[in-house]
Amino acid sequence: MTDLTQDNDAIIELDSHDDWINEFQPEFVIECLKPFVSEQRMERIDSVLANRLSSVTVVLDNPHDPHNGAAVLRSLEAHGINQIHVVESTKRFRMSSAVTIGCEKWMSMHRYNDFSQVANRLHDQGMRLWAAMPSAETTIQQIDLSEPVALIFGNEHTGLSDKEVALCDETFTIPMYGFTESFNLSVSVALSVYEVATSRRKILGTKGDISVLENRTLCARWIAQDIRGAEYIVRDKFTSKS
Q: What CA–CA distances, in Å, run from 150 to 56, 115, 133, 240?
């Protein structure tokens, strides 16, 4: 992972180990670094990987509050969601490191300059896009989860534009029964992802669905993040092997 500034609203970059991990291949990296990891730690990593979902993801469109962004990331990681997509057409996405408490290390983030970019990418991956809209007739409990889904959430103040909603396949709402007319962004995401991830796992009949390659790549990345000088260790082992 790249260095973070000390500001609690630091811009957090993810996946900084991936270039050299892919250079040497994940299995070789795991082989080199595994002796430096305790058996209990490896069991924990393997357990979390077995529960990771790739067929459920979230898109945030120009989120405003760094604390909201951080809370969203923390909820997604806790629910085993593997990736988050962020549209930054108005400003760079920032999150409070005081709220994430390190969970950003275990997530993959994808950034976009325009909403159409993420919509096209997710459609190409076979995902159905569901936009969160208070006026929608379909509730979160009624979403068809027989196929991979991406939940789309707009900015805290302006929501999703008509153009962005038009690029989605369906709209959904979270039922509310009090006087309050809306949930906070991070609460909306947490409620929605819990419902969708739980139902998706029941349909799949398993807790996780990431590919073998993604499993090994994440395993190598997570081990490397815990070991000082991980890249040097792997390069030295490769040189000795050659």
A: 6, 13, 14, 45
- Domains contained in the chain, CATH given: 53-224 (3.40.1280.10)
**Count of C-beta atoms within a 10 Å radius of residue 170:** 18
| End-to-end CA gap in the chain | 28
* Low-confidence stretches of the chain (pLDDT beneath 70): 1-16, 96, 98, 100-101, 242
d(Cα 114, Cα 120) in Å, to the nearest integer?
10
**CB burial readout 132-161, b (16+ within 10 A) else e:** bbeebeeebeebebeebbbbbbbbbeebbe
Average pLDDT value for the chain: 88
Q: Distance (Å, rounded) from C-alpha 58 to C-alpha 82?
A: 10
- The pLDDT tens digits of the residues spanning 41-84 come to 999 999 999 999 999 999 999 887 778 888 899 999 999 999 99
Phi, psi of 179 (to 5 degrees): -75, -25
